């Protein structure tokens, strides 16, 4: 039997790797550098980058993902970029990976090969460094950044959609989506 902490770590790694792999495969663009968050500049009209640092079994993380992130994404998907793969069974990481891969119609052998490869280790290292490079450091889970800034954590946790709309600016698309939220 695998210890619970190890399962959680494996699940988080799988979600991160799947998200990165899907992003690379679908959008063919590199991940934005998270270690230089204070200098992150989003191009005008580009989607707001929302990064969520969470623990799979944390009640606050579950609440944020289901009540804030999912709701905001359903309304504002065109103006926000979030790598997401909802895993319903955190107890069986391999099964969770299979469900996620199936959900996105990806090749499981390709994902497993990435996970087992040096590149998979690099992706896990990159995300570990991203977590450790957050300033201020993580003191609460979940921690959310919007365009690289932790800014107003209390407001983000309470009303993510409103904060995404503020960050999106005055584009026509953002105005249309956000007219009743800010």
TrEMBL record:
Keywords: Glycoprotein, Membrane, Transmembrane, Transmembrane helix
An MF annotation (GO) of this entry: oxidoreductase activity, acting on a sulfur group of donors, disulfide as acceptor
Coiled coil: none
Transmembrane spans: 7-27, 39-57
Record bears the keyword Transit peptide: no
Domain of life, source organism: Eukaryota
Protein name (database record): Gamma-interferon-inducible lysosomal thiol reductase
